[in-house]
Amino acid sequence: MRQHGLVITIGQLARYAGVSTKTIRVYHDKGLLPEPDRDSSGYRRYTAQDAIDLIKIRTLAGAGVPLARIRELRAASDEDFQEAIHQVDAGLTARIQELRETQKRLRRLAAGRLQMLLPEVNSHLDRLPALGFSPRWVALETDLWILVFATHPDTALELFRDQTEALDDPTLRQMYLDYDEAHDLDPYDPRIDDLARRIVQASRERYGSNDLPGQDTDSEIPALIQGAVTASSPAWQRLDALIRERLLR
């Protein structure tokens, strides 16, 4: 039998528990909170115990416990209830840790994308403008190195150092600069064909095969990266196609 004494309306109960009256009605429908009798005026009247029960339900629901599970726990023994609470608490602890790590990454991103990369990568990116590379190229490289280090941490540093060594060679550096400048050329400009020839020749001389570094993998990431590079320029798209075609000869 329900205990009477101090009684409150559904609106008061909702304010005390921090939920809406609609939520209380949902809990009634789901069998989580018994629906009280109505008084002579036709209003539901709730007790202090209803408020306590509702706060427990709200707390469990706020922790992510499904309503069906809450209904089961309402009928569980004290021992089973406490064990379930411990499990929910452990899950929340793990989730909080995940959120904290996500928050750290978000703050690093807000502070500047370069903080997501190794110091030597940052130094490399910082020197590109002085070497003659466009802001577009620097932004592109920044995004690509973030992607490479995130998806291929075991080989990213080797690939990065291979590129920095290439930039130390005046001939190879000029090819990179020409690649940058080719962005705005007509796809069938003769300079595109000449650049493709030079890149293929330099690749064979540098690596001794028809494979570019980072391509000997089953991962889809290299193709994704190349697609990102060429997406903004029809000239780059044709240049990439020519390079691949000639490397297969």
UniProtKB/TrEMBL annotation:
<feature type="domain" description="HTH merR-type">
    <location>
        <begin position="7"/>
        <end position="76"/>
    </location>
</feature>
<dbReference type="GO" id="GO:0003677">
    <property type="term" value="F:DNA binding"/>
</dbReference>
<dbReference type="InterPro" id="IPR047057">
    <property type="entry name" value="MerR_fam"/>
</dbReference>
<dbReference type="GO" id="GO:0003700">
    <property type="term" value="F:DNA-binding transcription factor activity"/>
</dbReference>
<dbReference type="InterPro" id="IPR000551">
    <property type="entry name" value="MerR-type_HTH_dom"/>
</dbReference>
<protein>
    <submittedName>
        <fullName>MerR family transcriptional regulator</fullName>
    </submittedName>
</protein>
<dbReference type="Pfam" id="PF00376">
    <property type="entry name" value="MerR"/>
</dbReference>
<keyword id="KW-0238">DNA-binding</keyword>
<dbReference type="InterPro" id="IPR009061">
    <property type="entry name" value="DNA-bd_dom_put_sf"/>
</dbReference>
